Please model this.
Amino acid sequence: MNLEQMKTVLREILTKTDLTPCVVGHRGVGKTAGIVQVCREIGRRHVSLRLGQMEVGDLVGIPYRQGEVMHWSRPSWWPAEDDPETIVHCDELNRAQQEDTLQAIFQFVEPPVEGARRALHTHTLHPKHKVVVSINPPDGSYQVATLDRALIDRMVMLYVETDYP
Model:
């Protein structure tokens, strides 16, 4: 699909479902710009997580003790319940450098079961906030990790190509 088609489908998914769209395309095709444009059009704040630059602690927060119990601080990027409606953009999912980072984000990109909330470790995301993923294609052109079937099957894959001649 071209960029405009991708934006139309993305808008529908983000406003009408709890599914996780994954935009797949080559560099420069407009994946991120299209996602940001859709966020503006539907009145949502855009938060970008460049997963190729993150570690597990960046995702789940740092531990702290409260008496005898360990808790995890809320990461600064995590939208609070009273924040404006937000799209958390998991950019470069297949560029996550460490296997544990990819495993940590797995739970977050998985759509929640009915009646439950999307979660990441001990944090739960208010249903008004949504998640979108973007990746470069694993076609040998990029230094990216292979995503397993279990992860891919939990997302709606949107393949975008340029329609520039």
